[in-house]
Amino acid sequence: MNWENKASLIKKAVNSTRPGLRSQLTMAPEPRPGHKVYSEVKGQCKKAGIMILFFPKKNQLHLILTLRTALVQYHPNQISFPGGQCDPKENPLDAALRETEEELGIESTGIKILGQLTPLYIPPSDYCVYPVVGFMNQQPEYVPRTKEVAEVIEIPVSHLMDDRNSIIETWELNEREVKVPFYLFDHQKIWGATAMVLAELLDIIRPVLKNQL
Q1: How far is CA 74 from the centre of its chain?
Q2: DSSP per-residue string spanning the chain
Q3: 88-104 residue pLDDT tens
Q4: How confident is the model at residue 175, as a pLDDT?
Q5: Does 146 reside within a domain?
Q6: Which of 4, 65, 81, 131 could crosslink 117 through cysteines, CB 3.0-4.6 Å?
Q7: Could you tell me which of 174, 148, 25, 27 has the C-alpha nearest to residue 81?
Q8: Are 195 and 23 in contact (CB under 8 A)?
């Protein structure tokens, strides 16, 4: 299977017109915990880089997600992309690469950068996250940082593209009922900012990969 060809298709799609907030909001909880968006706060919010990392496994294209531990300051026990806050004078791309190496032990030299997605503002933590899209031509070996990463989740892209795995439930959050869209994978529910980023990614890559997964 020509994985480099698939990476080229993803790169071309990611660097074309991006749907941005229109796609992100399809997987936003309702009501949202704050209604400001990136364009309103980009000069004042804290900045973080996250890594959307594609890789092949068993002849399928996969993505890496992590289950955060209960010990982290923001969004404990939730599923996220590897990544974290930008250090002073550090750009989101460098932060995403550094954090991926620190959290999972994946060296940045093995990651090919394909592009970036639309930044997303997360009101509860006051972070603007900048999604970086990367590719590895083989399955990574992990050395997780156990204080931050409770579990490494390798999810097939084809699973995320299957609409049967996109579900909405009503949850009680912060003492109110909230309609929460999520992607279901095994026993895991991928929701919140991670699902919003995935929504844009899937809208971008679905047209070019739908017949190749």
Answers
A1: 15
A2: --HHHHHHHHHHHHTS---THHHHGGG--BS-S----HHHHTTTSEEEEEEEEEEEETTEEEEEEEEE-TTSSSSTT-EE-SEEEPPTT--HHHHHHHHHHHHH---GGG-EEEEE---EEETTTTEEEEEEEEE-SSPPP----TTTEEEEEEEEHHHHH-GGGEEEEEEEETTEEEEEEEEEETTEEE-THHHHHHHHHHHHHHHHHTTT-
A3: 999 999 999 999 999 99
A4: 87
A5: yes
A6: 131
A7: 148
A8: no
1-40, pLDDT tens digit by residue? 689 999 999 999 999 989 999 999 999 999 998 889 999 9
92 CB neighbour count, 10 Å cutoff: 21
User: What pLDDT shows up at residue 213?
Assistant: 63
pTM of the complete model: 0.95
Is residue 172 in some structural domain?
A: yes
Q: Tally the domains of the chain.
A: 1
Q: What is the CATH number of the domain that holds 169?
A: 3.90.79.10
